[in-house]
Amino acid sequence: MKIKKPIKELKLSVPAQNSPISTFLTASGTFHDGDLLLNQKGLRLISDENESVPSETKEVDLQFSLEDLETIKVIGKGSGGVVQLVRHKWVGTLFALKVIQMTIQEEIRKQIVQELKINQASQCPNVVVCYHSFYHNGAISLVFEYMDRGSLVDVVRQVKTILEPYLAVVCKQVLQGLVYLHHERHVIHRDIKPSNLLVNHKGEVKITDFGVSAMLASSMGQRDTFVGTYNYMAPERISGSTYDYKSDIWSLGMVILECAIGRFPYTKSEDQQSGPSFYELLQAIVGSSPPSAPPDQFSPEFCSFISACIQKDPRDRSSSLELLSHPFIKKFEDKDIDLSILVGSLEPPVNFTR
């Protein structure tokens, strides 16, 4: 019997056998993975150069413990875990708490450790702040700032479409976050989508969920794994080619175009809200002409911005740094557009009694 050769474009990744959590626990019950130490007291990172020198560790400012937090309600699911809205019992401050059980696949464990390191190091106003992280009884808990207007999914659900001036403000903030990730942290996010762009009542937009991010060892490094949300994936990722930071730019263009027209760009009309099937979508992204902004509905600057993001060849896409200087962004910079006016008028996605 002849065995057919596998299809070249299709790459399947078989998860490695799960490693027991005990492999990563010290005698005192501290989770230890590479240069990361995590326990009930919080997180420490040991620098590569001084792995054996405790005094060279970076200690977080320990202001509270998990016992100081009370759960209000479950508000969603992130990479590898449940997200809860919690409140500090004594101060009343709200946080988003992601709890991740560590009885998981090896690859996911590595992604979570990566997320911890990125959050520990992040110092960017357009990246969601992780205040604390803890390990206890087989679970890692991440304490994030609470973005009280949800994500762009929640915004579009209420306003249907976002007007150009507001979109320019959203774009600028997301691009500032991407410049930080791409140029300072050398990270491809790999999962830019509406639900990973969070908003608060002050009109701040921040990138979240680095559970599928990948650290690049050098500027020449590339990724060849298939993770993230396929709807917003760049063609080179779907076809199994290597990819770089420009894959995030495609995703950003798709997100912004969706916010502008009120539907997923590969959905032909509002009546066809279900969109194409999985295989139809993959085929369209790789084989068809990319979506574009209708020139009869949008300004030339906006159409140009979308085109600069959604190019089949990543070499033809602009970088996050270049896009910050795009005429669409510059057009509204001196207009004092206040995004808080838009989001402040919306119903919060989570209602509760304080």
TrEMBL record:
InterPro entries per record: Kinase-like_dom_sf, Prot_kinase_dom, Protein_kinase_ATP_BS, Ser/Thr_kinase_AS
GO biological process, one term: response to other organism
Pfam families in alphabetical order: Pkinase
Enzyme's top EC category: transferase
Residues annotated as binding ATP: K98
EC number: 2.7.12.2
SUPFAM superfamilies: Protein kinase-like (PK-like)
Every Protein kinase domain range: 69-329
Superkingdom to which the source organism belongs: Eukaryota
UniProt xrefs under Gene3D superfamilies: Phosphorylase Kinase, domain 1, Transferase(Phosphotransferase) domain 1
A single GO molecular function term of this UniProt record: ATP binding
Family of this protein: Belongs to the protein kinase superfamily. STE Ser/Thr protein kinase family. MAP kinase kinase subfamily.
Entry protein name: mitogen-activated protein kinase kinase
Organism: Handroanthus impetiginosus
